[in-house]
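Quick review question:
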């Protein structure tokens, strides 16, 4: 039986990207730890609960580009630096 949102074989974007979101989370953890910051410190700078960073770093929450840039800035990191590390990690994962 087809659902209203598509066919029975439809897979959500979150499901498709699940492994990549974990890789992104690891890249963010490395960037944060390199700066000697805790999740709670970055979350406080952003004015968000610590669970926000935890979900991102665990790959259970998707980010849009604006959130990504704000997180990088909160950590004092050039977003492009994290993207380069992410590209390298994603390439080696495949």
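Suggested answer, residue by residue:
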């Amino acid at each position: 039986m087809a659902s209203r949102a598509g066919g029975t074989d439809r897979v959500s974007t979150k499901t498709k990207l699940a492994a990549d979101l974990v890789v992104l989370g690891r890249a963010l953890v490395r960037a944060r730890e390199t700066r000697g910051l805790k999740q709670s410190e970055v979350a406080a700078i952003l004015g968000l609960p610590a669970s926000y960073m935890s979900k991102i770093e665990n790959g259970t929450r998707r980010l849009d580009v604006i959130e990504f840039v704000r997180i990088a800035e909160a950590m004092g990191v050039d977003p492009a630096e994290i993207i380069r590390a992410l590209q390298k990690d994603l390439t080696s994962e495949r």
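Why it works: The helical segments are 13-34, 39-46, 50-57, 65-75, 79-93. The mean pLDDT is 89.
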